[in-house]
Specification:
Blueprint: H1 2-6, H2 10-13, E1 17-18, E2 25-26, E3 29-40, E4 43-54, E5 58-64, E6 70-72, E7 82-86, E8 97-105, E9 111-117, E10 127-133, E11 138-143, E12 151-157, E13 163-166, E14 170-171, E15 176-179, E16 195-205, E17 213-224
Parallel strand pairs: 3-17
Antiparallel strand pairs: 1-2, 3-4, 4-7, 5-6, 5-8, 8-9, 10-11, 11-15, 12-13, 12-14, 12-16, 16-17
Length: about 230
Amino acid sequence: MEKLIAKLFVAAAMITLVSCSSEEVIPKPYSDAFIVTENVSGVNLYRMAFYTYANVSMSSVVVESESGETFSLKSPSGYTYEYYLETLNNSEFSEIGEYSFTVTPDKGDVVTNSDVVLNEAIEPIEMTKCAFSTTNNRIEVTWDPSEDVDYAVLILRDANENAVYYSSALSATASSAYITSSGWSNGYAPVDGITYSVELNVFQLEGSTSDFLQSKAITSQDVVWGQE
């Protein structure tokens, strides 16, 4: 997940602020709070996601809602330049408002920033086709585009829910994609007869000029590699 979200912050990765009086790097975190909607057994469930990326290593990131509830983000895989957390699923979404981030860098002063979450979320998009093609030796996925979506990404997960494949970002008007046996994460190779979960992730940005998310929606379906 963190790899996927990090793609939104390419610009942030290029920024290194340097003090005029020294070579010390000034901590500059970028924080985002957004809604995640997932269709589970025909029911839409909602949760919050929090993400912070910085130009320096961080020791902790804590988020506080307007109601005073706090969340401690985690550094995925020990990569301390980004922190992420998702809350538990809820049948209804009501956690709108401003979220305050307190970022503690390994070196330098504590930094605070915030992000406002609006009361709107995109719906998961039903896949009209999600199946393995023995003719083409690939998983083929199609769906109907939505005008609320800014871009989409396909993710493939193994039986342990580890992401083993990420597609490139697909345009808002895209309606199909396929997953071949090449380009999988960390040199992973698909195995015939193994069941994988195909996720169609669609994203809505906070605005046309923003790189930050308002919401994300997930639709998933199991596919057996090598079998139609």
